[in-house]
Amino acid sequence: MFDGKLPECFNRLSSIKLFDISSNQLTGVPLPSLITNLTSLEYIDFRNNKFEGSFSLSWFSNLTNLEFVAIGSDNENFEVEIEEPVGWTCMFQLKVLILSHCNLNKHKGSVIPSFLLHQYKLRELDMSHNSLKGQFPDWLIKNNAMLQVLILGDNSFSGKLSASFHRNPNTKWLDVSRNNMMGLIPNDIQESLPYLYHLNLSRNSINGVIPSSIGDLSVLQELDLSHNWLSGEVPIGLLTNLSHLKMLILSNNSLHGEVLSRNFKLSCLSSLHLDNNHFTGSVFSTPYLYSSSLYIHRNFHPYALFRIEDEILFTTKTLSMAYKGDVLDIMSGLDLSCNKLTGNIPEELGLLAQIHALNLSHNMLIGPIPVKFSNLANIESLDLSFNSLTGKVPSELIKLNSLAVFNVSFNNLSGRLPERKAQFITFSKESYEGNPLLCGLPLENECIMEPPGPQPSNKEASDEKWHDMDMASFYGSCSSTWFVIMLGFAAVLYVNRYWRRWWFHLVEESDHYVAILHDLPSQTGNALP
Q1: Which stretches are transmembrane (predicted)?
Q2: What is the mean pLDDT of the chain?
Q3: Which of 250, 337, 350, 444 is within CB 3.0–4.6 Å of 361 for a Cys-Cys bond?
Q4: In terms of residue numbers, what domain contains 259?
């Protein structure tokens, strides 16, 4: 890894075609003299360094062979200015342009670069995380017939989504998340972009229903429509036709219906997020989820010339974990929280051996926590809070060595908590609060010793138990008790005159009564004939 400033001698490499200095610790202000002489340059990558100051794309204007440009910096003081000088013209036609996280045109109103109006060979364009403003640039899809990847997330584009997609059968990856897009998802999306592989429209202001045409995107593998104003039911085609779908995120909308029904046939699903909606029904009555591997197998995007890093957020009651880049190759999750799901938690969820995050909180689930959850060997986050679960917390869960977040609070659980060892020694009382019948550390409720089991019914077992007693202690205890009782009785008679007289009178009457009973048999015998 290199650091320091770029040596000026680089400007002598006039025959160089590929110039990649990405992912270093280089600093300073890049000078135009370092680039303008590299007339044979085809590929340049300046990303992930510590550059500062202003960088202008006009420095490349005479590089006629240039096809790949990737510029960015980890320094917030770095910015790319494309509109200066006014009227500059480019002599190149790019295939790949990456200008992410670079304060693009910050001092020119964060407008979309105007030179793109004259680019017609783009295959991949990433201008995400720049706060760009204005209407959604639908002309980018129209002008570049070979455009495969378009990433414009985390900007401030506006306009109606329903009028934003021109037909382009080559577009495979579309991300316009975190913008200000409104309107409906186009009903003809499968006609405009029939071969979409990845579609991310999350965190906008999209309303209406999910069109059934999304179920006709036959090669779709990743769909994120979360954090919008979508309503209605999930189209059956989305749940049955998308046989390649690996990631489905519909969180934070107003969707309803029994989405987890027998119509659910997404056998390749890796990550499912349906939280914060109004879904009803039981957790699952379909075998398709359990037949899936719940394991993400995705390395390089099959259509991309560069590595696309996507990000998935797994949320529990106490922690949000963002997974990005290479870790997504082994990440999977199931989030059904904040709905109206009912019934028991199916034991089959314990078959999802590769799952890393499971969130069923804030529903109306009943019944016990499945013991088979102990088979979730890779689970890192398990949230079952705010339901009506009953029974014990299975002691078998202490086998989950990867478990970092565990929450069963606010249920109706009872009994002794699992032994505090392995990962369970790290969980605080907040993980169990709202269950008054739970006992044991870390709670303050101490467990009462359980009563002994039923006694043996046969006489031999009973005799054996008596023979096992300490008879000397037993007789000694009885004698001591008898002596104390008699001593106390004598003391009462000595102190209380009334009781003493009453006692002597009682003894005298008893003696007289016994004498009568003793003479009665003889008198009765003499009376017989």
Answers
A1: 474-495
A2: 81
A3: 337
A4: 246-448
